[in-house]
């Protein structure tokens, strides 16, 4: 079992920055990929970014060049640095982990971007 707890969401003006954190606990050694997804009201949950156990990263097109995912293995934490935020980035952001062929999700953290 893996538990994920997100933090760092909040209200920010367009053009501003936020850093989300996701702390993992439990069967840490079984974690492979970790990533972030988001879900805006009335929309489906969508992929944002992923980082593998080896440190390779991939991003959704709408966030490329603005968001950066990173991983601190010593702290069992994944971060999402979000810069140049746009109103369309507003959503609940969910941390995700793939461990032993099973997907785990955090409870989500709200990001609100005012125009």
Would you summarize the structure shown here?
The protein is mostly beta strands. The protein has strands at 2-7, 10-13, 18-26, 31-39, 46-51, 57-59, 67-72, 77-82, 91-99, 102-105, 109-114.
Protein architecture, described:
The protein has 115 residues and is mainly β. Helix content is 0%, strand content 59%. It is built from no helices and eleven strands. Strands 2, 4, 5, 6, 9, 10 and 11 form a seven-stranded mixed β-sheet that branches. It is globular. The model has no long low-confidence stretch (mean pLDDT 96).
List the helices and strands and how they pair.
Layout: E1 2-7, E2 10-13, E3 18-26, E4 31-39, E5 46-51, E6 57-59, E7 67-72, E8 77-82, E9 91-99, E10 102-105, E11 109-114
Parallel strand pairs: 2-11
Antiparallel strand pairs: 1-3, 3-8, 4-5, 4-9, 5-6, 7-8, 9-10, 9-11
